[in-house]
């Protein structure tokens, strides 16, 4: 029997996706979905994506300001064997996000990059193009636990080096890449210095407090920081993470459980303090963004705090309205990882947080629980305007970005 | 109905696969315990490329007569493919999710003639 070419199946070039597979091949279905939905004409801002800064740590440590620490760090990377990155704390080998190799892009992105720019520029561009994203806000990864470092000054050294390195090597090479610069929150004076130094630098659209830390966000030491950000109209983000050494998670033996709770708990604690101590009353124009805790925790906390507050208003005397009202008017939230198994619950959540103005799309690419823009587009209960707002227009307003789409699909 | 020639039967060994495009659609053909199974390359979770994922035996945790557990084990009787996007796992023979049975892969029809494998869509 004669078989014409059109009747022959074409073997896909990638039979099994692994850590060497090109981002564009991994996300080929996402790109097709973006084209199918006409995202060419939609502004899409990805407010939380990541790179693995430790791959470039030997390069990054050269940006440490302190000459003695810089020298130590460079020698450490030139000479020491079998260690983690200089100065970083964290959970060392407890990084099971890739589910034993099942999700290779989480384990490593080892594809070929030879575009003449830093690998993180190339990899981010490939992801933006595949996902249909116009602007991508980059955050570090292992540095997100620096808030628990036993040496508070190390957060200052490494946080500043990271900001300088990121601007120099990545953000200044592509104005579609942005960041919320690292704030060394454990040393308030240095955090203030960071705001002075990095406000207005290429790609810096706000500042980020990695949430895993045991510092009270309502302490008087931080009021100057909030005032400085409010004056500059720059948002403050609380980026969640997990840390398995946290005693409240000590009995959990499965990464699944620890990750599910850890990524939410840190922001629930900070949000509780933020609201009950009246930070939105003291800084009504300060915009706070709550990043990477998903969304399901917000209705729970709103209800819990409202009920308790009405019984004990004398303990939160600065509040003039319900905690939930501050949470839906003064706070912004990123979508990922958006809980979608119960659509009814998700719909109610989006109503409760006033998603039409307060919700910001985030992919969290390349992490194992990343989301795609199509998940917002496909929600059956949102208007087109609400979808456009969540996918990009809310972020454009919040960060003062040009709302004209810039991508080519 | 359209038929697409994939390859000869012996090109897919036991434990092997071939993921192909048939026009606009992508199909993964797997051989498990000697039999061929074909699935649309579209994870029911987020439409990820499920058929291009890694293959693992099902993970089980045996419980002894005292209701105690000691080790995790692989059950080679049930082979799973894991979606490389988010890790959703499905049985390669039944298409059923490793957890709730309501999540399933979409099976594609195969025809075998004169030692050649065809996808029928």
Helix and strand sequence of chain B: EEEEEEEEE
**Mean pLDDT metric of chain A:** 96
Strands ordered across the widest β-sheet of chain A:
2-3-4-5-6-7-8-9
CATH architecture of chain B: 3-layer Sandwich
Helix content of chain B: under 10%
The rough form of chain A would be described as globular
SS summary, helix count of chain B: 0
Strand content of chain B: over 45%
Secondary structure: number of strands of chain B:
9
Provide the residue-averaged pLDDT of chain B: 97
The helix content of chain A, as a percent range, equals 40-55%
Oligomer: heterodimer
Low-confidence stretches of chain A: none
Distance between the termini of chain A: 40 Å
Radius of gyration of chain A: 22 Å
Q: Major sheet of chain B: order of its strands?
A: 1-9-8
Instruction: State the shape of chain B.
Output: elongated
Tally of strands of chain A = 9
CATH class of chain B: Mainly Beta
Largest sheet of chain B: 3 strands, antiparallel
Write the CATH homologous superfamily of chain B: Rieske [2Fe-2S] iron-sulphur domain
Domain Rieske (chain B): 3-119
Protein name (chain B): Rieske (2Fe-2S) iron-sulfur domain protein
GO molecular function (chain B): 2 iron, 2 sulfur cluster binding; metal ion binding
Keywords (chain B): 2Fe-2S, Iron, Iron-sulfur, Metal-binding, Plasmid
């Amino acid at each position: 029997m004669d078989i014409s070419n059109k009747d022959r199946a074409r073997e896909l070039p990638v039979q099994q996706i692994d850590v060497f597979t090109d981002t564009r091949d991994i996300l080929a279905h996402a790109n097709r979905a973006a084209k199918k939905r006409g995202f060419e004409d939609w502004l899409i801002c990805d407010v939380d994506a990541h790179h693995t800064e430790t791959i470039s740590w030997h390069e990054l440590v050269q940006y440490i300001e302190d000459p003695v620490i810089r020298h130590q760090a460079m020698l450490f990377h030139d000479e020491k064997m079998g260690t983690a990155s200089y100065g970083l704390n964290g959970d060392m080998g407890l990084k099971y996000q890739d589910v034993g190799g099942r999700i290779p892009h989480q384990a490593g992105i080892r594809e070929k990059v030879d575009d003449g720019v830093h690998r993180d520029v190339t990899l981010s561009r490939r992801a933006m193009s595949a996902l249909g994203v116009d602007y991508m806000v980059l955050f570090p990864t292992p540095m997100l636990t620096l808030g628990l470092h036993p040496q508070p000054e190390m957060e200052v050294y490494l946080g500043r080096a990271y900001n300088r390195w990121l601007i120099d090597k990545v953000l200044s090479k592509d104005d579609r890449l942005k960041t919320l610069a690292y704030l060394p929150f454990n040393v308030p004076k240095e955090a203030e210095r960071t705001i002075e130094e990095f406000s207005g630098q290429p790609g810096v659209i706000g500042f980020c407090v990695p949430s895993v830390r045991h510092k009270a966000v309502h302490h008087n030491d931080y009021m100057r920081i909030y005032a400085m950000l409010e004056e500059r109209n720059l948002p403050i983000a609380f980026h969640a993470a997990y840390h398995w050494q946290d005693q409240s998670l000590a009995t959990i033996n499965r990464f699944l459980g620890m990750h599910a709770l850890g990524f939410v708990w840190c922001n629930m604690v900070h949000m509780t303090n933020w609201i009950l101590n009246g930070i939105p009353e003291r800084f009504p124009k300060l915009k706070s963004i709550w990043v990477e805790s998903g969304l399901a925790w917000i209705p729970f906390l709103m209800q819990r705090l409202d009920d308790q507050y009405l019984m004990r208003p004398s303990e939160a005397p600065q509040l003039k309205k319900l905690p939930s009202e501050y949470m839906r008017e003064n706070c912004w939230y990123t979508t990922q990882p958006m809980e979608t198994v119960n659509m009814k619950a998700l719909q109610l959540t989006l109503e409760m947080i006033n998603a039409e103005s307060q919700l910001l799309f985030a992919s969290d690419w390349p992490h194992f629980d990343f989301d795609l823009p199509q998940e917002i587009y496909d929600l059956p209960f949102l208007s087109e305007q609400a979808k456009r707002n969540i996918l990009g227009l809310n972020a454009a307003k919040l960060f003062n970005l040009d709302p004209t789409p810039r991508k080519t699909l | 109905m359209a038929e697409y020639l994939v390859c000869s039967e012996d090109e897919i060994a036991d434990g092997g696969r071939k993921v192909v495009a048939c026009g606009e659609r992508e199909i993964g053909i797997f051989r498990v315990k000697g039999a061929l199974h074909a699935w649309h390359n579209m994870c029911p979770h987020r439409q990820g490329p499920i058929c291009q994922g890694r293959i693992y035996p099902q993970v089980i945790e045996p419980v002894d007569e005292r209701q105690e557990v000691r080790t995790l084990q692989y059950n080679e009787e049930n082979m799973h493919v894991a979606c490389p996007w988010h890790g959703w796992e499905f049985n390669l023979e039944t298409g059923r999710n490793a957890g709730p049975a309501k999540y399933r892969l979409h099976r594609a029809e195969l025809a075998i003639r004169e030692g050649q494998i065809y996808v029928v869509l």
